[in-house]
Amino acid sequence: MIVRKVVIGSSCKLLLLLFAHINAESDTFSKFCLMPSYCGSGTLENTAKCTVVYPRESKDAGEAEDFCHSASPYTLTSSKYGKNTTCVHERGYVCEDGEQELYDNCLIMVEPRGDKFSNKLCPEGYQLHVLGGRDEAKWIAIIFRQYKATWIGNSGDNARFLKPKLHPNAKKRGLETTKGKPIFIRLAQGARDGTKRGCAYYGTEDMQMPYLCSRKAEPYEETHLNLTEIFVELGIPFIVIPNKNGNERVYANFGLLFAVEAEQFEAKMKNLHIACYLLPKGFVASHDDFLNANEFTRTMDKFKDLSFRVSKGRSAAFSMKAEKCEKEKLFMSNRKHWSYYDKKGDRFEFKPEHWKNTYPDNMCADLPRITALMLKTGYIDIPAMGRRPVLCSTGGPEEPNRPLRKGESCNRAAKYNPKTKQCECNFPETDGRLQNPKVYGNYPPGIICLSCKESKEKKSIVFVFDRSGTINVTGVHQELRFMKEVAKNIKGSRTGAVVQDNNPRVTLNMGQWDTQALFNFVQEAERERYEVLSAWTVIGRAMFLGRKMLEVQ
Predict the structure, then answer these.
(1) In whole angstroms, what separates CA 279 from the centre of its chain?
(2) Strand 493-500 vs strand 459-466: parallel, antiparallel, or unpaired?
(3) Deepest in the core among 115, 181, 224, 367, taking most CB within 10 A?
(4) Last residue of some domain: 61, 91, 121?
(5) Of the candidates 393, 413, 440, which is a domain's last residue?
């Protein structure tokens, strides 16, 4: 990491990105709220609602709304026009630590491993992210601005809106056609290869850059239930029923019919869930997803005893030919050959008692009955080619037992107190309201928790040692004392130093995993007699030397 200097008047402050952090700013929503664009001033009501006042005049409600939409990717719940424009945003989803939340996705960057491009390099549970629009590309360029570029999963028709271009150095890289070539987005400014920030380009498989990977975010309880207003407006039949965890969920029938892609004895059940992807973490529901038999019966009554396809399929290993068929007698035993398929295509057992009596009743037919249909009386087996409706719900069978409510959502350094109905820092003394009341006194309890976190990972630190005309001799010694304090308090780090003046140069190469070399450097620097320092510097060159040292480590 690089130490930067910020000159304010005649004083110099050294900013070092260490392990200390404001936990409330660790998630994407809080960052957009507490550090808004256009010089706005943001306030978190809780970790899911933010009010930002911008020193920007808007003449009417429409102008204020348009501006608020452009200022944040989160759902706009209200806006107010006037000399200052006020925007209130809420988020409907939550991600884990280390993930960035955008729309209904949790995003991570996966560094390349030296291999050629592959869309299979994302960790388990993630996939190479497919952008849904130009606005999303803009927000990704802001959120991940520390990266130069990233591979994305768009291709073919779903890449047209990006208008990807040939890489400026395409011919040098042997890129003569764009067919089948992966696409990347330039994220950082100042590229020397002719690419522009926020634009999409076709790359070659040998280009080394991180992969933008995503998974679906976890919806808040309110996000699930807000769907009812939309369904009423669109005339979509639905019912709100407790799921197997006791959380109220919306179950809806969109009125569309679906067959199942299949080979002779194997159904591709994974793809059936796509029918419900319009919903937050949407999936095809089945009998197993209800709290009890009564709730299941209520649901089937609501939809007038319709029969629904479910993601249950028969094992492809059971492949008896039709000419060898006899009247089915072993239906209880044959239920063992059936599994539930989740959205990833993984197989799981399901309760055999949910079958209709005497089913599955035909394990070998001219059209193999390798899929299941859900009736009020139980499952029956049917061929894959039959077009039937599906019952969609939200959250997925894997959702957490405890519902995630916006008012009870706290950052990772805090917990919700049901008695006070407020967040509380895990260590109360770290609350920003107590630590720095002038800055954080207007925030609710438990929103800003100031704490230090020690990482077990080894770190490389580069100091940019300022010898410019803005720093007098006293300032230089302050820098040296700061460097000693850093070295003294950070274990498992190796350090280097670059002098910033009119001739930037490396004065301390990266050492081993100890701090003695840095102490020696500081002691030697303290013994120097400083004359009039340079009045001008080449800071860009100094930063370049620092980055090069970090890149080779």
Answers:
(1) 18
(2) parallel
(3) 224
(4) 91
(5) 393
pLDDT digits (tens, 9 = 90+) for 149-187: 999 999 988 899 999 988 877 667 666 777 888 999 999
Entry pTM: 0.63
387 shares a domain with 260: yes
State the SS3 of 347-394: EECCCHHHECCCCCCCCCCCCCCCEEEEECCEEEEECCCCCECECEEC
Q: Are residues 200 and 278 in the same domain?
A: no
Burial state string for 104-123 with b = 16 or more CB within 10 A and e = fewer than 16: bbbbbbbeeeeeebeeebbe
Q: What is the pLDDT of residues 57-76, one digit of tens each?
A: 999 999 999 999 999 999 99
| d(C-alpha 147, C-alpha 406), whole Å | 31
199 and 255 housed in the same domain = no
Residues 470 and 382 reside in one and the same domain? no
Pairing assessment for the beta strands 165-166 and 200-202 based on DSSP bridges: parallel
Higher pLDDT, 436 or 200: 200
In angstroms, the CA 1 to CA 418 distance is 41
Give the Cα separation of 56 and 54 in Å (integer).
5
Tell me the one-letter amino acid at 107: L
Which residues share a beta bridge with 8? 11
pLDDT one-digit tens code per residue, 214-250: 998 888 888 888 888 889 989 999 999 888 888 888 9
If we measure between CA atoms, which residue out of 524, 529, 542, 243 comes closest to residue 391? 243
Find the domain containing 67 and state its range. Answer: 21-91
Q: Do 228 and 191 sit in the same domain of this protein? A: no
The amino acid at residue 32 is F
Give the CATH number of the domain where residue 543 resides.
3.40.50.410
- The H or E element containing residue 309 is strand 308-314
SS (H, E, C) 128-163: ECCCCCHHHHHHHHHHCCCCCEEEECCCHHHHHHHC
Looking at the structure, do residues 209 and 279 belong to the same domain, yes or no? no
In this structure, is residue 364 part of a structural domain?
Answer: yes
- 143-181 burial, b for 16+ CB within 10 Å, e for fewer? bbeebbbbbbbbeeeebeebebbbbeebeebebeebeeb
Structure tokens at 174: 């042997």
Close Cβ partners of 413 (under 8 Å, ≥ 6 residues apart):
23, 24, 425, 426, 427, 430, 449, 451
Number of domains forming the structure of the chain = 4
Residue 268 and residue 177 share a domain: no
- Dig out the tokens for 99 from the structure: 């993930």
Measure CA of the first residue to CA of the last residue in the chain; give whole Å.
11
Q: What are the distances in angstroms from CA 61 to CA 51, 53, 245? A: 16, 15, 42
